[in-house]
Amino acid sequence: MTPTTIVAVSIEPFDVALTESFGIAGGAHAIAKNVLFRVRLANGSEGIGEAAPLPAFNGETQALAETALRTLEPLLVGKDLRAWRPLVEATREAVSVASARCAAETALLDGLLRHQQLSMHTYFGGAETSLRSDVTLPTGSVERIREVMPQWQKLGFSTIKIKVGGSSVDDDLARLRVLAEVAPEVAIIADANAGLTEDEARRFVRELRQANLSLALFEQPVAKDDLDGLCAVSREGVRVAADESAWSLASVATLLQKKAVDVVNIKLMKTGLEEARAIVALVRAHGGSLMIGGMVESSLAIATSAAFAGGLGGFAFVDLDTPLFFTESRFEGGYTLEGPTLRLDPEAFGHGVRPRVGRVAPPA
Amino acid sequence: MTPTTIVAVSIEPFDVALTESFGIAGGAHAIAKNVLFRVRLANGSEGIGEAAPLPAFNGETQALAETALRTLEPLLVGKDLRAWRPLVEATREAVSVASARCAAETALLDGLLRHQQLSMHTYFGGAETSLRSDVTLPTGSVERIREVMPQWQKLGFSTIKIKVGGSSVDDDLARLRVLAEVAPEVAIIADANAGLTEDEARRFVRELRQANLSLALFEQPVAKDDLDGLCAVSREGVRVAADESAWSLASVATLLQKKAVDVVNIKLMKTGLEEARAIVALVRAHGGSLMIGGMVESSLAIATSAAFAGGLGGFAFVDLDTPLFFTESRFEGGYTLEGPTLRLDPEAFGHGVRPRVGRVAPPA
Q1: Max Cα-Cα span within chain A
Q2: DSSP, res A354
Q3: CB distance B85–A126 less than 8 Å?
């Protein structure tokens, strides 16, 4: 048996209450229900990855992710991790739950890189050692915006992402007006999570313009498959990002070929790491811009995305804020947070994240 | 200064006579005129890469590659190799000669991986530890085919690539008939290197069919920019590969979107490693097939391509035969050759190739 042979895997669902209900157009969640996946090697080293299924985003659930990950043990145990790509491909063939695929791929790559004492940040290219994230205002009331903005401003956030499409366009317009009133200095990203019709989205953009409000970015205004709608909103003169519509390399190729959007929001929970890496190259080859985002992810998945985006470099939009909404940290390491800034560690092994002692059970 | 700081680079042109003139549709070369590029790190370790410019393929020359590589010293010396992606991007912005870009990127990645004691094969995924190559019959006479085929058959080659388009279609048809007569057991790839018109290419396919001869693959029958011609040849019922037409990630995206070809020939000398890696993912996402090829490359560049293709896995066509045409080996390591089979070493550091002592000068 080689030192890099996988001897055990473990699957540990974990729930963390959020500081406030995280609402998007498709629904709201008060608790993050994620899954930790570990692989242990013969030499005692370990790789870990997180599945962060988000029912309101695409219907994936903790139960689906957990069930999917449980099927992987016979595919992985006994295999040499140096042949990691066939293992990643085997997991992708075995399970269709994207967040479970991402957890497995993350754990495999992390295990290999820890063994090699190489940081995931250097593996992906070592380009940038810090990233500046936005912070999110979930769907909700005008009053809630007035309540929470002072703390985000005090922490130094200069880009605010506001979730829209959860109620009427008029309600959202009112929320945008209040946001611009209380924080005139910030750049605003509106994210409809596929919750608007083309007409609603175009009206939203036009009324904002009439109110002298400008969006830095309008994310996924219309339904996932409505590429004509994305094109139509782009023609309104606002930068548009695809998120739900950019769910695979092939879907991004189609978006770029149709020139439907200017920006692609890359989330490892949609595609895993290798496919996301190819999406980055493809978007760049077409002159598009990059965003890195996440589901409702703990610092484990966020550190992975930060190593990915910082290593590759050149991401124009960074949306890695969800650990700010977690009431407790199950993990430590990977990056340090200074207000909106994630500082990465090029000297870490793998993504550098460890479960906090006593917070998550060790592998069986 | 960190251990991974680049302290020196060197550029060493080297010429190697070939065992026979290597003829393709665009011209023939009796001598390989390539360039060795090295980066030396503060800790004494080194990374090396080869530029194999091929004038008959795309007009690149040894002088162009050498001049391009000489401009890179101020961009690289003093930089930390852990931030390798910005260095690769800087070299790509500084020089447009694709083979020089490939040499620089190879040397940078090799240097990093040697420092980390990680093989390039494992870095790319560790999928397959051996590759089975075809061997090439350059343009030339019918008699030459009768002369050389016995040695290739004795060595066990089961796929023969024959260069066509260098003279008339009738001459090439005669060469194909002789090849099929002396080696009825082999699979045949015809490679026109963009040397035929659409009409010529279609006639070639039809006359072969009338003679009961089938091609395993027809590579780049028509001009680089003639995508309609590629489509037309594909409609003749033969598998078509793009080579000259597949010169970048964006060009491959267009080929796939037009469904112009079934197979993409990936050559690191066209795109470098990172762009090639994204091309592999894109071709797979569209259900296409992969070929790995090269220019007239020594074992240094071939070992790099072998680590790439073997690491990624799943290449349906392997065309890594050019070291067989070199009258001497300037390098050692990287892989071992058993007839048509390249055996890779997952335990190597980097691509594992070293200059043979006394054969290439050390860096200044």
Answers
A1: 68
A2: E
A3: yes
List pLDDT tens digits, range A82-104. 999 999 999 999 999 999 999 99
Mutation target for A interface from B5, B6, B82, B252: give the one with most A CBs within 10 A. Answer: B82
CA distance linking residue A278 with residue A248, whole number of Å = 10
Distances in Å between the Cα of B140 and the Cα atoms of A21, A102, B150, B165, B293 are 74, 52, 17, 11, 21
Q: What are the tens digits of pLDDT across the range A10-62?
A: 999 999 999 999 999 899 999 999 999 999 999 999 999 999 999 999 999 99
β-pair partners for A259: none
A79 touches B at CB < 8 Å:
no
Is A142 touching B (CB cutoff 8 A)?
Answer: no
> Taking residues B259-275, what's their average pLDDT?
98
**Whose CA is closest to A290, among A321, A257, A313, A272?**
A313
Report yes or no: A2 at the B interface, CB cutoff 8 Å.
Answer: no
Q: Which of A117, A285, A313 sits opposite B249 (nearest CB)?
A: A285
**Burial of A107 from C-beta contacts in 10 A (0-12 / 13-18 / 19+):** buried
The pLDDT assigned to A362 comes to 46
What distance lies between CA A287 and its chain's CA centroid?
A: 22
- pTM greater than 0.90: yes
Interface probe for B, chosen from A5, A6, A85, A115 (most Cβ of B below 10 Å), is A85
Q: What is the 3-state secondary structure (H, E, C) of B138-181?
A: CCCCHHHHHHHHHHHHHHCCCEEEEECCCCCHHHHHHHHHHHHH
Single-letter amino acid, residue B100: A
d(CA B246, CA B252): 5
